[in-house]
């Protein structure tokens, strides 16, 4: 009986010892899952996202098995995967802004994949401004904005007008495609300028922009575009797990058309049940506390409706179901 008792005690002690030791070893990442595996000294793991053999952009297949294409894509996939905050912001904002951008691209005859230009230009922020002075979601410089039909001055800056700037971007993209016949060349020119892309193609005697030796920013630009499409097209695959209520919903609004100036936009906002900040948020192209409009132009202001100013997670609808896990 004593022998059986001792045997039982030994078994219980062994089980207890394993129960304490295994979680400790596992939690400290020194428990080998495989013999001879490397032991991590930090309590988490980082993996490299898989680079596909090829991707398709605007109907064009890009082979990623060639060493330089693969490594450039690898870099941008890692960047989007581990720049957590900016990638999550892009996905959240896409739920609000892709429904605005996509119909304009379709109307203008631009491939839908070109919407990812706005992702890499501004992380889909209508208020984005670069150190060089490029502004808005599509990052127009003042001169280029005016060239493509946008009003840009101290009182009005339509580079911040999402719809008008998207139409202006489409005009640029169509003209560039007439020249190159290749949407990745068009994308490269959006970053590096048509003059540079045209001259470098002639000097280096290649047909495709992905085969050019360019300054690092432009060289990366094309593969950032491909990576943006991959990650926003399948965020769960790259570790981004979001619920539908975490996306930014579209906020309903009414439109008010004006053909004269508005002396006091603060009062105008209050008269419409808004704060000045809310009026500016929906109309960031207004650059001052008044609308001058000396030429009597027609402007359309967005006035958010009261029911849209408060979050109701139950009413948030994912524009693309692949963005969420519920």
Q: How would you describe this structure to a colleague?
A:
The chain is mostly helical and 326 residues long. It has 3 domains: 1-45, no CATH class; 54-245, Lysozyme; 251-310. The protein has 11 helices and 4 strands, in the order αββααααααααβααβ. The chain has helices at 2-27, 67-82, 84-108, 116-122, 142-147, 162-180, 183-192, 194-204, 216-233, 265-271, 276-282; strands at 54-57, 60-63, 253-258, 299-304. The strands form 2 sheets. It has a two-stranded antiparallel sheet with strand order 1-2. A hairpin with a 2-residue loop joins strand 1 (54-57) and strand 2 (60-63). Helix 2 packs across helix 9 (216-233), helix 6 crosses helix 7 and helix 7 packs across helix 9. The model is unreliable at 8-32 (pLDDT under 50).
How widely separated are the two ends? Answer: 58 Å
- Helical run tally: 11
Residues in helix, %: 40-55%
The amount of beta strand, in percent, is 5-15%
How many domains? The number is: 3
Shape label:
globular
Looking at the chains present, what oligomeric state does this protein adopt? single chain
Strand order of the largest sheet: 1-2
Report the major sheet.
2 strands, antiparallel
Low-confidence stretches: 8-32
Task: State Rg.
Answer: 27 Å
Quickly name the level 1 CATH class of the largest domain: Mainly Alpha
What value does the average pLDDT take? 90
Structural class: mainly alpha
CATH architecture heading of the largest domain: Orthogonal Bundle
- Annotated CATH topology of the largest domain: Lysozyme
What is the succession of H and E elements? HEEHHHHHHHHEHHE
Count the E strands.
4
